[in-house]
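Follow-up to my earlier ticket, as requested here are the two runs.
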Amino acid sequence: MTHIWQGLRSGEWVTAARMRGYSLILLGLFVLVFAGWIAVSDGLISSNGQPIGTDFSNVYAAGTLTWQGRAADAYAPALQHAAEKAVFDGSDVPFYGWHYPPFFFAVAVLVAAVPYAWGLALWLVTSFAAYLAAIRAVVPRHETWLVAAAFPAVFVNIGHGQNGFLTAALLGGALHWLDRRPWLAGVLIGLLAYKPQLGVLIPVALLAGGRCRTIGAAAATVAALVAISFAMLGSGIWQAFADSMNFTQTVVLEQGGTGWQKIQSIFSAVRACGANVPTAYAAQASLFAMLAASLAWLWHSDVAFELKAAALALGCLLATPYVLDYDLVVLAVAIAFFARHGLRHGFRDFEISLLAAAWIVPLLSRSVAGVTYIPLALLVELAFFGVVLRRAVLDRASHAPSAPGVAQA
């Protein structure tokens, strides 16, 4: 038992050979699972009656409605569901709501310009490539491709046809370019506004860090996106979006319409345990205040940028009550920046084992929560955030200099 504990403490069990082996095993297993999933499907409908790509059907249906000049109908659940059924020739597929701001119709229109299967493939391949490029830019090592590709959140995202790849690519890219191309980082952050709930702490970090050019570029990007959506879709589209937010908040979030085990927030964990809505919001607000204060201190300090970036990526996931398991692709950004810091300056106790836990947790989080109500991903993220803060404090206390001769990524 002592040997196991010492191994976890040092992280010596996470060897390069094991990383490659585990990654290849997971890749092989998931390829087989997806191949079997497609093989037993009836065309575009899986054996359980859901569309291939599940959530992607709402994006494709919204794009179809936009091509028909009816974009606002995507925000009306009954009309959106009818459009989703029409995509699959009237099949009684489940309802997948459209909850995105109007400027995300640009993506929907593009993927709906081709048949569904091609649109899904185009969406996943391009966004996956962007995700891999962002993570590889943060950690420019040859094994990064394999470890990032085998990250279990990748397969959760593919199974849902979701946007976790795009979110991680935008956030990872923005943080990577923040020092060298602050205006480009701002544009990427502005584009991230398509998932506004994941970006609420980004202004806190940027303001604390005095990143005025990035803030200006982000604000200008959002303003441009809003203006373009007004020009292309009319002012009524934003009213339709505003009207739909009550449904999203009450049915999807507060009543757990998506399923408590899928939502990876402290709000969902508290609600799953039987607490009422005000109690869940109070827990979320308390966590948000802690995260905001910690990030403000961290980004205003002189600690290594990699620690600031890792903490912000984790904060984006922890701060919102509405974060699903496919959003855990963003964990790869936090893992990559923290790993880069450790590779340059060495790892402290338990850090390597915690990175391994963060890497594997998307594979387990939904099923564990569904059976036990234990919010495994939330607990790992909180532990990870605490370790980042601990590392920042210890690094400052020791005044550790940067490793000489190490090129910046």
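Run two:
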Amino acid sequence: MSQSRRGEAAIDEQEARRVAAELAARCEPKVNRLARELAERRFAAIPDYAGLPADMRDLEIAGTARYAIRQFLDMAAGAHVDEDDLRLFLERAAQRAEEGVGLSTLLSTYYIGAELIWDALVAEVRPGEQDALPMLARLQIRGTNRVVAAVADAYQAAQVAVQDERRDALREVARALLAGEPARATADRYGIPLPAAYLVLNLHLPGRSPNGVAERRLLRRVRAALEGFAGGTPLTLLDGRGVHVLLPLDAARRTAELRRALVRAGTDAGPVTIGAARADGAADVPGASARAARIARIARATGRPPGVYELRDVLLDYHLSGAPDGGRAVAAALDPLDGRPELLATLRAFLDEDLDRRRTAAALAVHPNTVDNRLARIARLIGVDPRTTRGTLLCATALTLRRLG
């Protein structure tokens, strides 16, 4: 390019800068109105913002909008912008992350603001000033990208910190509940719901160190598999007894789904056997945790396949393992027969007559088919068929414990 053309280009650029500065100056008195309009557009375009507290909408967001608009107009007028000028945006990004506002929602507001400022600048253009618009467009794109990049980085950093803090809080709440210590204050501070009753799980990989790499990996997979299960975030803890999981008791109604999720979570780490016990409230969690650990240990020791096991699944073995509450649990297996004396009498006679249905019928003075019908009803009520080996052992033990009181 010749020297004369370079000179003309420099003059043109200087003229464009002068006009841009004048356009920015003419927009300056409209900053408050533009900030209000930005808030209105934001609320209309982004539903999440409509539900924010009034002080956040009217003070924080409006104040940030005024600051952003003035900053761009100052930059258009030739003022230098440095990192300190981004501080307010970074602080707001961290706040929005802590408040749970989505990143896409947050960034959308900056593009809405850029559109609003551009409309205001174009509206102020007078004849002969159009040549300043390309320069203003470049300034706006660069400024918006600079702010958006900084805000995204600040938001993500704050979100990581929030997630780490919440994960620590979830772990502390789980530890306190399992230890029988107060957990309500920590839970309330971090917005962690505590259900009235729990399903307490224990998972342990056989032949592994209780706090080894495989267990920690299993814990992460279990968290991911159960996120949102039964309407909440699972409380989890890894200690010397394995992986503990506390879920709302509603999860007990979805045992099949729970079994699939947990077995799938443990597939890579190895076969996982899970013990499950119900806790009536926070005070019962330590006892339920001990029961769940014993149930898991019994299920593994007796060669049962990977899955979720409750007390009823290993009841006799649980009693024989020396569990302090085993006798009560086994005796309670026949509670569904209370108020049905003909069924209890049939069960006693069936066992006394060495499982012979005809001799049982003769002892009760009923038809053998009646014995069959009653035994089928007993199986439905207690969940175990007394005509099987396991059912015979359980029923005989339960009757003996009941007679002994």
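The only thing I checked on run two: The chain has three domains: 3-161, 195-313, 331-404. Let me know what else you need.
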